[in-house]
Amino acid sequence: MSNRVLSVENLSVDIPLADGVLHAVDNVTLHVDRGETLCIVGESGCGKSLTSLALMDLLPKKAIRTIASLDLNDASILNYSEKQMSDVRGNRMGMIFQEPMTSLNPAFTIGNQMVETLRRHRKLSNAEAQDLAKQTLEKVGITAAEQRLNQYPHQLSGGLRQRVMIAMTLLCEPELIIADEPTTALDVTIQAQILLLLQELQAEYDMGLILITHDLGVVARIATRVAVMYAGQVVEQGTAEQIFENPMHPYTRGLMRCIPVPGRTQPGEPLGSIPGMVPSLIGRFTGCRFADRCDLVKDACRKGDVPLRDAKGKTQGYRCVIEPRDMTKVA
Amino acid sequence: MSEMMINASAVTRDFSISRGMFRGKQRLKAVNGVDLNVTRGEVLALVGESGCGKTTLAKILLGLLPQTSGSISLCGTPIGEVPRLELAKTIQPIFQDPYSSLNPRKSIGSIIGLPMRVQGEEDQQAILQRVAETMELVGLPSRLLNAYPNQLSGGQRQRVAIARALVYRPEIVVCDEPTSALDVSVQSQILNLLNELRAELNLTYIIISHNLAVVEHIASRVAVMYLGRIVEQAETSTLFSNPQHPYTRALLDSVLTPDPRLGLPNTQLGASYPNPIDPPSGCAFHPRCANAMPHCAQAAPNGLVNKDTYVECHLYSDGDAAKAG
What we know:
The complex is a heterodimer. Chain A is an alpha/beta fold. Chain A has a domain at 4-92 and 207-265 and 272-330: 3-Layer(aba) Sandwich (Rossmann fold), CATH 3.40.50.300. Helix content of chain A is 34%, strand content 22%. Chain A is built from twelve helices and 13 strands. In chain A, helix 4 (110-122) crosses helix 5 and helix 7 runs parallel beside helix 8 (188-205). The relative contact order of chain B is 0.13. Chain B has ten helices and twelve strands. Chain B has one domain (4-324): P-loop containing nucleotide triphosphate hydrolases (Rossmann fold, 3-Layer(aba) Sandwich). The model of chain B is unreliable at 320-325 (pLDDT under 50). In chain B, strands 6-7-8-3-9-10-12-11 form an eight-stranded mixed sheet, with helices on both faces. Chain B has a four-stranded antiparallel sheet with strand order 2-1-4-5. In chain B, strand 11 (303-306) and strand 12 form a beta hairpin. By secondary structure, chain B is of the alpha/beta class. Chains A and B meet through helix 7, helix 8, helix 9, helix 10 and helix 11 of A and helix 6, helix 7, helix 8 and helix 9 of B.
């Protein structure tokens, strides 16, 4: 049995709008293994959230998804019916969203919502479900779990709510968790705790984890592998060490220069920046999508699509016309 | 001696919280005895978790909320004695989210010029002139004068918000999370701009932020707030190299620097943030503190200055400093 939990090839998401088709996600190919954390990082509008929704088949109605292959545990789930997909969601693939207040139902108690999940997916009796819900809350570090089950979401703090969300995704012991900006709405102190919890649970359950974030600090500390997205494409992927210590794509390099790092950047000195704006993705795009903002741009950049090429090893890939050895020279 | 811009002493702000129809009101001390001195050209960062009172303190400084007790002077004048319009010429805010702080129905030129019209300026030509100058100052192309906020990117919107704050050339700017709604590549541009403007216009900033990496980069002094009080205050480099309060240490530990060789920190801040209506006895931080001692639960620590740092912690009071190491 292979270790691969999820693999997707050539995922694209197109959204028809009044003034043309928006190519929001373009030929994204990704995979996650057991016990591995894949971070998808990028700025707003780069398609990272749509990618995760497309994996769960939760896209808005008018979005059109095209995929070459989508395998969960080496079995294709591409042609699953809506009914089959809803068995997969929550049961085999769990999802954690950014703002726990909007993803928990305010009208039901925590216990109600957890028990419903268990009865839907695991066909447990009410008493069994109550019991398991309580145990799972304890597992994610919630004290007085029995009382919490009878509370409503608004009675909990942001950190507690996110713990409840994590507990809910754990209920069915999924093979894969997709977490979309799970700590963005939380305080820094709570952020570290929640990420640590996710990491511990991932090891315990031997799950795959896809974490979507814009925070490079989070990525560096938790990722096994990283996919950097820009304007709907994966522009660079590799292990966390490769991406942070030897970034190849000019966009990844630009991002690294933008962030202040205590002890590394000089206080008060200007930070690096990436001039310009993300291009419009409406209509067909030829050439490199980063060309207009890139300081290494050449004629070749605008002539046809730039494929994802291997860097030095097979593990790191980047989407740029510049050869790896020339790229190290300009660093 | 540099010029004193903000001088606040023992500022408190209480809110009355209703507990239901037949029960009395309860006091919530959002800001509880804050002393603050800011000199011209300084960048003071207020950091702390949500609910610690940093935004309430900023609103008091801006004159948007009266303080319950204590006194505040801006440039030597007590703020209670100055009319609101006069105060607005001295101190201006920049808010977190440029998507909600700009009126979507007004053009950029009219948004930036509004503070001048509010101040009673009637000469359209003068307003237009000033708006154009300010737009250039913050790096907005003049063709955007008649554009609307929805035509602008997040970074451009934040530049509009900065231009609006600066159009009347205030002395002090209060920035409440100025970059946390922005993407990384835009965040760095706005931070660079804020730094340039400070040098160019000799501004004083109060920056509220939870991003300590940003604070380290831009602030000259940092005040750490916990439950309405400033528990530690020092020059930025001192605070980052030698944090004294256990809370400050925990905050610094939770900064995730982009270094893949380091794992996730374990901050040991087990218990969650206390309820401000029912604050813990003694030192408000003691239930979460790794160094808590029995008397921390009984008496609140007095503020003292230890190695250039103002700190409120029993670890440093009456000769205990040696133990803290």
